[in-house]
Amino acid sequence: MKTRVALLGVWLVCSLTWFASSARAEDADYEGIVRNALSEFDLGHYEEAAALFEQAHAKSPSARTHRGLGLAYYEGRRYTLAVRNLREALVDQRRPLSAEQRADVQQTLHQAEGFVARFHVALQPSDAKLEVDGQRAEIQDGELLLDVGRHELIARAPGRAEDRRLVEARASSAPTDLEIELPQLAAPTPVAAAAVSATGSAPTRAKVPGIAPWIAMGAGGALLIGSAVTWMLANDAYANAEKKCPSGSCPGGVPSDVGSGKTLVTATDVLLVGGAVAVAAGATWWALASRGRAEPQKTAFLFCTAVGCSAHFRSRF
What we know:
By secondary structure, the chain is of the alpha+beta class. The chain contains 7 helices and 11 strands. The chain folds into 3 domains: 1-113, Serine Threonine Protein Phosphatase 5, Tetratricopeptide repeat (Alpha Horseshoe), CATH 1.25.40.10; 115-185, Sandwich (Immunoglobulin-like), CATH 2.60.40; 207-292.
């Protein structure tokens, strides 16, 4: 029994010694971070000082780490963060501020509040979430603090339409009311959600004629136009021949205009027949291709409303 008591006593002494050494190591680490933060602050490196104070605050949060953060943010002109941390420094009871530190914080806080815009936010519905410039907004007691400048606000809530707006924040001692009411999303109307074939793909359509019939009809039309031109030229040739031989007889033989007219008449006949054949062939080709129908198909339609869905099936041959 005495041996067990002795062993227990040794274990307790060792445990207390280990905890004490661990606490001293953590304190030394914390104090080293704070010293580095103060050194960066004195050099005017306010962003670095704020980063180090954040590390110290993560290890051992207190009124004094809030004070260090608030002063670093203030000097770095990040006034919204400065106001938040300086306010926390005044109310945090962990390692509270001295009277001198408290007076300094109050004076700096008063100056920082003159550089921020204050909004009284009212969200409808009450569970709506607000983002500022892509970050979750920090709203305390209905108050939103923003640095001076333009900011994008996005409000979201389940079952509600999203609200996006740009606000111009201006420093003012009086808060600005900001009311955001998100409208209810409209209930879906009965519509055909999809029309799919029995295999899950879209129904097969009838084949559409290609461009070839139109090319054939276009070529035929060009030939018909050509025949009309040659016919007019033939008429001109015969008219010239008649002027040269008004009595129907020419002493010098048959004029060349008559020969040209005959050639043009022959060309007219060829073009006319060829054009008519081409147009007829193209039209027939197009008509036959247009009459082609798709394979027999079965189509399923799914209709959905706010209260449920129903399916309808249709076959076509």
